[in-house]
């Protein structure tokens, strides 16, 4: 084993001294192991980035700007697979574009304040092209493990296994890697359609149908609005208390206004202002079954990561009765749903807007950096970007959207670049 580690370390040093920037891969054509099977091994002079979403692209671009090559492994066949493959058609950024841009490249001035999905994906594709980020697609990472000062990342591709070896690994799979759907009693009996929002595209196919949407976050609210606009009959299950805020206040986005106020006032005072303004603009949401938590929206976000809902028109549909609000589900039957209040109603379809979760704990063989239950960094923002193990980094797990991912990417690039240039020929290499 020690001989293999020394052999691997020698190869990595040799490749680093070649200063490979345009094509950072070097493939050892020999097979690992002596049994004739084995896997293709790829030595990477810079970091291995797992995930080609916005966070992974930002990390790769920031590294390249500092002269550090990287290899980006992506399980799907495109960048930003969540945005391209698992989101609905009407999706827009809920925050103004300037709070969602990636490092070193602003959105085009021609873009609207809240870009739709199509334009955001176009922006990401231009970003990858501009900074020469070319992910290795259709590579599903099955394990990443530190051994002898190096990281070994195993990935499956078309039924075969590859191993990527580097001093650094950047986990960029994010908080939304896998869809989450709750277990509901009787779900297997339901004869209508039952899907997660990751498979929902448009309300057009639900015209004239009664649809139950489970989950009252931003996705659940927006899917209900979409269904209503296509003349479906949506109902929204609200189990928990939720903060609903207007998307804009006083001619500014609520997010932008809150960030400005936080420069001058404590969080609790800003929360009081936001709630007072929301009541003035939206009315008492509890009258419509949307009860607010006792903790203010910003404080709740800081403590639990739970994001307030930014209303884009759903509340008016709830007020008018076009969208019904229902309590939690007790059980599902063949054609009906029984609620916890004893009422029962027929539905043609059930859509779970119950969010996503991290999948890091299923493949990262390191237990100190990420919590096993949630798959999120144990260190709170803004210090979660650097792992507990040498050479391990995380990007896009801040629960602060694209802005937080961009901050992580810049911190990671700064840290790795110092080490990388030390190991190249100009330094100790």
What does this structure look like?
One of its GO terms (molecular function) is flavin adenine dinucleotide binding. This is Flavin-containing monooxygenase. By secondary structure, the protein is an alpha/beta fold. It folds into two domains: 2-177 and 356-423, FAD/NAD(P)-binding domain (3-Layer(bba) Sandwich); 180-352, FAD/NAD(P)-binding domain, CATH 3.50.50.60. Helix content is 28%, strand content 21%. It contains ten helices and 23 strands. A five-stranded mixed sheet has the order 1-2-7-6-5, with helices on one face. Strands 10-21-11-12-17 form a five-stranded parallel sheet, covered by helices on one side. A hairpin with a 2-residue loop joins strand 5 and strand 6 (150-157). Residues 1-23 and 29-36 have low confidence and may be disordered.
Layout of helices and strands, plus pairs?
Elements: H1 2-16, E1 26-31, E2 40-43, E3 48-50, H2 54-65, E4 71-73, H3 81-85, H4 117-130, E5 140-147, E6 150-157, E7 160-166, E8 169-171, E9 178-179, E10 193-196, E11 210-214, H5 218-229, E12 233-237, E13 244-246, E14 248-249, E15 252-253, H6 254-261, H7 267-282, H8 297-304, E16 309-311, H9 314-320, E17 324-326, E18 329-332, E19 336-339, E20 344-346, E21 349-352, E22 356-357, E23 392-394, H10 401-423
Parallel strand pairs: 2-7, 3-4, 3-8, 8-23, 10-21, 11-12, 11-21, 12-17, 13-16
Antiparallel strand pairs: 1-2, 5-6, 6-7, 9-22, 14-15, 18-19, 19-20
Helix pairs in contact: 2-10
């Amino acid at each position: 084993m020690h001989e293999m580690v020394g052999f691997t370390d020698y190869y990595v040093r040799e490749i680093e001294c070649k200063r490979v920037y345009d094509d950072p891969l070097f493939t050892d054509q020999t097979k690992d192991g002596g049994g004739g099977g084995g896997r293709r091994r790829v030595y990477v002079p810079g970091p291995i980035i797992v995930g080609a979403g916005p966070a992974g692209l930002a990390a790769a671009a920031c590294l390249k700007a500092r002269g550090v090559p990287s290899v980006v492994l992506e399980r799907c066949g495109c960048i930003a697979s969540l945005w391209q493959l698992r989101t609905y058609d009407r999706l827009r950024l809920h925050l103004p574009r300037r709070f969602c841009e990636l490092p070193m490249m602003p959105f085009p001035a021609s873009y609207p304040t809240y870009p739709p999905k199509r334009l955001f994906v176009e922006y990401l594709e231009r970003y990858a092209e501009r900074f020469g980020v070319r992910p290795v697609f259709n590579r599903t990472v099955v394990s990443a493990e530190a051994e002898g000062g190096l990281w070994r990342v195993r990935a499956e591709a078309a039924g075969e296994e590859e191993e990527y070896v580097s001093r650094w690994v950047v986990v960029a799979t994010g908080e939304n890697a896998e869809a989450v759907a709750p277990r509901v009693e009787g779900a297997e009996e339901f004869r209508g359609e039952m899907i997660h929002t990751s498979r929902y595209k448009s309300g057009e196919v639900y015209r004239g149908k009664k649809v139950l949407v489970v989950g009252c976050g931003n996705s659940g609210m927006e899917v209900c609005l979409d269904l209503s606009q296509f003349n479906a009959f949506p109902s929204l299950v609200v189990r928990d208390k939720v903060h609903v805020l207007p998307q804009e206040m006083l001619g500014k986005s609520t997010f932008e206004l809150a960030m400005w106020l936080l420069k001058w006032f404590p969080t609790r005072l800003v929360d009081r202002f936001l709630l007072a303004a929301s009541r003035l603009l939206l009315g008492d949401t509890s009258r419509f079954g949307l009860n607010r938590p006792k903790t203010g929206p910003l404080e709740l976000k800081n403590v639990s990561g739970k994001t307030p809902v930014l209303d884009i028109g759903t509340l008016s549909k709830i007020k008018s009765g076009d969208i019904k609000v229902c309590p939690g589900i007790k059980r599902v039957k063949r054609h009906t749903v029984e609620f916890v209040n004893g009422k029962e109603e027929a539905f043609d379809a059930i859509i779970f807007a119950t969010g996503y979760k991290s999948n890091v704990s299923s493949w990262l063989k390191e237990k100190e950096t990420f919590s096993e239950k949630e798959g999120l960094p144990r260190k709170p923002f803004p210090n979660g970007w650097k792992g507990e193990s040498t050479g391990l980094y995380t990007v896009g797990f801040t629960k602060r959207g694209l802005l937080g991912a961009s901050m992580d990417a810049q911190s990671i690039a700064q840290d790795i670049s110092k080490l990388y240039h030390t190991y190249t020929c100009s330094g100790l290499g």
